[in-house]
Amino acid sequence: MSQALNHIAQAVDQIEATSVRASRGVRVAIAFGIVAAGYGLVVASAVVGA
Question: Which of 23, 27, 31, 32 has its Cα between 20 and 30 A from that of 9?
């Protein structure tokens, strides 16, 4: 679980660094994608761990 959260944090840092020049809509879409991917990783790690 903590490993999945670390991956999410790294992705967020990378996206924030590259999205400084991006429009607000693009940033919102990227943030939504990160959240969706994060939930997917958490669910996947829960299923694998169960």
Answer: 23
Residue 9 belongs to domain spanning: 2-49
Q: What 3 state SS string does 19-48 have?
A: HHHCCHHHHHHHHHHHHHHHHHHHHHHHHH
Q: Encode pLDDT of 2-41 as tens digits.
A: 777 777 777 777 766 665 666 777 778 888 888 888 888 8
Residue 27 makes CB contacts below 8 A (sequence gap 6+) with 19
Number of domains in the chain: 1
Both tokens of 5, joined, read 């959260």
Residue 21's pLDDT is what? 63
